[in-house]
Design brief:
It is a single chain. The protein has two domains: 58 residues, Helix Hairpins (Orthogonal Bundle), CATH 1.10.287.540; 204 residues, BirA Bifunctional Protein, domain 2 (2-Layer Sandwich), CATH 3.30.930. It is built from nine helices and 13 strands. Strand 12 and strand 13 form a beta hairpin. The relative contact order is 0.13. The protein is 37% helix and 24% strand. It binds adenosine-5'-triphosphate and magnesium ion.
Length: 279
């Protein structure tokens, strides 16, 4: 019995073949080679067509489109769009409580010992919110959409660089925080045309409620939300109620397209909107 060789399996996977099909078995080597050639040729043809269709008619990736749609939705909803640096100081990470013991610490890409590529948007948003809170009546609504970086093992659900959309609202009545957090999450989920999700609430005496948005059929975490007053607030000189939620945009696109992996949807030289470029 002959199975596809490792190289053949890798090539088929690259071209989007499902694992079951890569596991086919053949009674002779010749039969296997023949089938591989037929399959590869037809896949390359189909993939070229997809790429041509993308370049001629679509021209904007789904993550890019979602970024724009979300920006419009949130600005219309009264939120101010923030564009903050990708390179942040190590001290701002420390102010987020990310010390040696924190699980995120080992995932940080350091740039010159003192700076790093931001693994999250929260430190920059804390900083901007603190400054805006000084000049407003106490209500600040901000969001940012942009790359975050984490050293990951690059599985199907994680990339080293991914697009985060983080929304934060300050100065709302304490009793409304929970409902507002879900409302903000729903704005994003609606824009992403996602309906199969649940909110998973965890209550911690120290940190208050945290809410994860989870895609139910796959158990994939789509977002994490939190609320304040929070023990970290004093480090940022923020003295307000707040809610915040951060979504990974590639994950939102990925759940709408089971064939696409995280790596093919993010920033890449190998793929365009999930379609292989090197065919
Ligand atoms: P996970 O437990 O799935 O690794 P997390 O809890 O570490 O995620 P958060 O810090 O809560 O992630 O980040 C908010 C959101 O950003 C996640 O819910 C997810 O949608 C997205 N995200 C986080 N890490 C990655 C990654 N490496 N690649 C792609 N998206 C990610
Ligand atoms: Mg999380």
């Amino acid at each position: 019995m002959f199975l596809y060789s490792e190289t053949q399996q890798r090539r088929l996977k690259e071209l989007g073949v499902r694992s079951e099909e890569c596991a086919l078995s053949f009674s002779t080597r010749e039969e296997r080679e023949k089938q591989f050639q037929i399959t590869e040729r037809s896949l390359v043809k189909a993939e070229r067509k997809r790429l041509q269709h993308f370049c001629q008619d679509v021209r904007r990736s789904r993550v890019s489109k979602l970024e724009r749609d979300l920006s419009d939705v949130l600005v219309n909803e009264g939120f101010v769009e923030v564009r903050s640096p990708l390179l942040i100081s190590g001290s701002s990470l420390a102010k987020m409580g990310i010390d040696q013991e924190h699980p995120l610490h080992s995932q940080v890409f350091w740039v010159d010992g003192k700076k790093c590529l931001r693994p999250m948007l929260a430190p920059n948003l804390y900083s901007v919110a603190r400054d805006l809170l000084r000049i407003t009546d106490g209500v600040v609504r901000i969001f940012e959409i942009g790359s975050c970086f984490r050293k990951e093992s690059q599985g199907a659900r994680h990339a080293n660089e991914f697009t985060m959309c983080n929304i934060a609202e300050f100065g709302l009545p304490e009793a409304q925080r929970h409902a507002r957090l879900e409302e903000l999450a729903k704005l994003v989920l609606t824009a992403a045309k996602t309906t199969d999700y649940t909110f998973e609430v965890e209550t911690s005496e120290v940190y208050g409620d945290t809410i994860d948005v989870v895609h139910k059929p796959t158990d994939l975490e789509l977002a994490s939300g939190a609320m304040g007053p929070h023990p970290l607030d004093s480090k940022w000189r923020v003295n307000s109620t707040w809610v915040g939620v951060g979504f990974g945009l590639e994950r939102l696109v990925m759940i709408g397209d089971k064939e696409c992996s995280m790596g093919s949807l993010g920033r890449s030289l190998g793929y365009m909107d999930g379609i292989r470029l090197t065919i």
